[in-house]
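Example (one chain per record):
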Amino acid sequence: MITQKPLFYAGLLALIFVLPFLFPAYGVQLAAMWLMIIVAMTWDMTGGQMGYNSLGNIFFYGTGMYVAALVFIGMSHDIGAYTDASGGGSFQFTDAQYFSGVFFGLIAAGLFCAVSAVVIGMLIFGLRGPYFAIGTLAVAIAAGELVSNWDWVGGGQGIALPIYPGDIDVGKKFFYFLFAGLGVTIFIFLKWLYTTRFGAAINAIRDDEEKAEAMGIHTMWYKLTTWAISAFFVGIAGGLSAFQLIHFEPLESAYQTINLGIFMVVCVLLGGKGTLWGPVIGAIAFHLFKEVTWAYLLGWQWVALGGLIVVTVVYFQDGFLGWVKQQKPEWFGVRVDNGSTENAGTAK
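Predicted structure:
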């Protein structure tokens, strides 16, 4: 398959690098596309590879935003005073304070979300199927309501952060490359992880958890670890979004369960669950679809989105990548001979 060739990856990396220079006016949209890729790949870790469909991964995104922002503020100012004044322009940050705050804020966001995933997972991983999905959704909704009524973190008004200390266009590229770097790192990591014993174990949990336990697989450990890894990356993505957005609110921006919380699932369904490239392809296609419909079908964009979901579920149940694999199995290392297929290699 072409995606196994080094030249393909080299060309792809070159394209990723030059995109913000080729389309400088779309820096924010390109960064948003990478956000969709990140949340889709991380959702697929549990939903596609492990078979535990979560509707609450947005919890880690929103929590990452708040943790990163609070660490950033706390390194230079009193958090309570800052959030009470909503920033207000009266709190100054030097360039060194800004960049060091961003760095440590992102690290703290990832680690806090990973620990949160372990704690929450120990409570709800006894649930399966729709009960697990509803349980994770309840956690995300409860977190949004809690934060919106917590004055110390800004309450319902949210938090306002300082803008990038420099040229606006440079700032757009700065955040684009941070999102792109995170996305590429996740892709490389998952490409390796899914070929290891760990990847085989979580696939066994997806196929039949009882049999996996009977084979001696410590299923709870694998479930907690998988969700923690996913939460770590989503938390960092949430932190990046906080600094890029500058101002964010708990329900509309951070814990947006009916927007990004649903979009990440749709991306995976569109591209193909349980595959490496499926979430990436689905996220790019969905982002382009969303940008076009939100721009030219304003007022009907949700109808268009609903139609896309219906078409995907009815006609492409295995996603775009699964459909292509059925039509062109030889592209995936499957040799077709007289109506029979034989695996000639492995590719996801």
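Caption: The domain at 28-316 is CATH 1.10.3470 (ABC transporter involved in vitamin B12 uptake, BtuC).
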